[in-house]
Automatic annotation (TrEMBL):
Pfam families: DUF3052 (PF11253). This is DUF3052 domain-containing protein. InterPro entries: DUF3052.
Length: 144
């Protein structure tokens, strides 16, 4: 069953909570381009009461938002880069265009890249009108 969430201010403000982002977290954004969902970005910035950090940030990161489109390059390489500043239990959200949208990424591409960089895929959710988020977390050491 698919749950459709209507776009609106209340729903957009909750997008940060649905992504597991708490007000005191450090959030980095990678892969920004003119096609990203600005309402999602604004809702997250409002929730954390600060700006999203870019790829030049030196901080330890709690959550990485990786906007990713078909044709952006090697997802595995991008995940290695995204994981480098990530806090030990940090989360990477790979945000991809929904099916039928320009730049759509097949879920199998994400599934293939994830294990090679020591991550596990845990869930997917809609993060705006045209974007889907795939939650990635560090693979449990006990499962290695």
């Amino acid at each position: 069953m698919t749950v459709v969430v209507a776009a609106g201010d209340a729903d957009q403000n909750s997008v940060a909570e649905r992504l597991g982002i708490k007000p005191d977290m450090v959030v980095q954004e990678l892969g920004w381009d003119e096609d990203v969902d600005e309402e999602v970005r604004a809702a997250i910035e409002e929730h954390i009461e600060g700006e999203l950090l870019d790829e030049d940030a030196d901080e330890v990161i709690d959550v990485v938002l990786l906007w990713w489109r078909d044709g952006d390059g090697d997802l595995g390489d991008a995940l290695v880069d995204a994981r480098a500043p990530l806090e030990e239990n940090g989360v990477i959200w790979v945000l991809t265009p929904k099916t039928g949208q320009p730049g759509h990424v097949e879920p199998s591409e994400i599934a293939e890249a994830v294990p090679t960089v020591g991550l596990s895929q845990t869930s997917n959710l809609s993060v705006g009108e045209g974007w889907t988020g795939t939650r990635l977390v560090p693979r449990s050491k006990s499962r290695r």
